[in-house]
Each structure stands twice: as structure tokens, then as C-alpha cells.
Amino acid sequence: MLTETSVTETPGGRPNWIRAVAAFSRSDTRKAVWQLINTIVPYLALMSLMVFSVVRGWPYLVTLALALPTAGLGMRIFIFCHDCCHGSFLPSQRTNRIVGYVTGILTFTPFDDWRRSHLAHHATAGDLDNRGTGDVWTMTVDEYLAAPRIKRLGYRLVRNPLFLLLVVPLWLSLISYRIPHRGAGRQAAMSVWITNLALVAVFTAAALTVGWQTYLLVQLPVILIAWTAGVWLFYVQHQYEDTYWTRHDNRDPLQAALKGSSYYKLPRVLQWITGSIGLHHIHHLRPRIPNYHLQACQDSIPALQAVKPLTIGRSLRSVAMNLWDEQNQKMVSFRAIRGRPRVRT
Fold first, then answer.
1. Residue 310 Cα to chain centre, angstroms
2. What's the pLDDT band for 345 if we cut at 50, 70, 90?
3. Helix intervals (H) in 107-252
4. The 330-332 sheet, strands edge to edge
5. How far apart are CA 307 and CA 310, in angstroms?
6. How far apart are the first and last CA of the chain?
7. pLDDT over 90 for what percent of the chain?
8. Structural domain boundaries of the chain?
9. Do the beta carbons of residue 284 and residue 20 sit within 8 Å?
């Protein structure tokens, strides 16, 4: 939550510190290249070690243990793809797109298709009248109480932590992002097919060398662990008790960024793995800031430090926050509305 005094405005109506935030938007080729080296090289090395462990017949628990750090590096690679989506990772937009496609293939993400939905998410974050693209399904209390039984059951299923963290990552990584979305446009559809063809080429090469079974035993746990952690991160970045939702006409982009996007304070090693994406309040405030400048921006601007951190402990409680209560301006649990009468429409 942001304190009132931290958003003091200039006579022009903008916070007096907003220009200081913009100064961190400049891309740095050396930092970007170093990040690619210190992440993709160990990622490929660990993948090779996982293949070696399967081929040599080591206990599969060893392979799964290696999958954890490999998946962590996979998450970090996805953050590079994410930055390329915003055109912030490298100075050249052409190079951003190339790197975005390559890192997208490594993480099973069609670059242009995901970019389309993610930019829509940024444009509509916190907007109750424009939900449904690139975000987590969120209903208001009144909408839920007015919904037919089958819709309420479906909503409860989607918001169930087991479904969210076991089924959704499988669905997204292996099915949803393998199919072009209707109405997404030719460029988005092409990115899906290019990514699919690249993955088929990787699978074929693996089948002809180490065997398709070995490839699946190595690749599947890495992708599923990385995507499960990624879904969790995306969930807690906007789904917590005192987040921000309002109707379109009242939406304030500044408040949507600083109040509706969490400052997920993680231990240093996890912050490195996740590319500082926990500083999500800054990212939504200025998406053009690359991951390698987010912490410096946070450290330099007192107004951003006024955002209350979301700790790991508090984030675990967010799984019980399921509905937006427009009257009280907060997320509430299903239990909190138990006994309320159905809303007639």
C-alpha cells in the first residue's frame, strides 16, 4: 500500500519523482549480454547433466533434483523474453525480437502471441470493465452471487490452489500456447507456429541422439516446475487483499501500478532467479525499465520504497482471497460471503 504523502503532485498533476523513474529505462547492452551468458550457459550445462544422468541410469531422483536449479534458470530466461516483449532488454528493437524468439523457444513461449496478451494485461490492469486478457480470472462479489451455479463452480475450480498450480501450468505450456488464439492476428499466429516448429526440431534431434524418452524425462520436469513457479508469481503480483480494482472511468494508472501490483520481497537468490520481477510495482509503473535496473530504481526513489512489501508469508495467505469486494475495496474469501443471498439480475 502506498502512503498518501508519497504521491505528492507537481502543479502539472504528475508526481514530482516520476521523471526520476524514467531515467532507469535506458537499456544496457553489456548488462543484457552478461545476463544471457550467466543464465543460458549454466542452463544448457545443467540440461546436459540431466541428460547424462538419465543415459547413465542414475536414480531419477537425481535428475529431478537437478531439475530444480535448471527450472530456476529457465524462469530467469523467461524474464529476458518478458523484457524483450517490452522492448527494454536491449537497445535495438530488432535484437529484442530475435532474443525474444530464442528465449521464448527455450521456455515454450510464442513471443509475439504472448506479447499481445501481456501488453493487453498492462493496459487493463486494475480495470474492472476490461478484464479477461492476460490476467487471472477475477470476479466481483456481486458478479459471483449473481452467476449461475455452473459458473460459480468453474470459478471455484480455477481459483483452487491445486488446480492453479498443477493444471494451469500444464495447460498453458503444453496446450494453450501451442494453438494460435482466434483473433490474435497473423503475426501472433506465426509466432506460435515458429515456436512449435522449433520445439519439434529440438524433439526430433533429441530423439535421434539420446532418445525421445530421455528428452521427455529431462524437459518435462524443468518446464513444469518453471511454469508452476511462474504462474504463482503472476498470481501474487495482482491477487492480494489490498490490491487495486476499479471501474474504467475511475482508473488511475499510477494507483493501478503502485497499489495494484505487489512489491514481492524475495530472498536475494530468488530475486536473482526471478529477474527482480517481484518489484512489480515499478514494472507496471514503467514497463520499459529492464530487469537489471529495477532494484537500483527502487533504492533511489523514496516514493517507491513507501509501497508495503508483500512477504512470502503474506503471499501464501493470498490464495484465500478470491473475490473483489467493490463496496469495501478489497479482495475477500469465499468464506467471507458465505450466507449472503444470491443477487438477482
1. 16
2. low
3. 111-124, 141-146, 149-159, 161-162, 168-170, 186-209, 212-236
4. 139-140, 323-325, 330-332
5. 9
6. 34
7. 90
8. 4-337
9. no
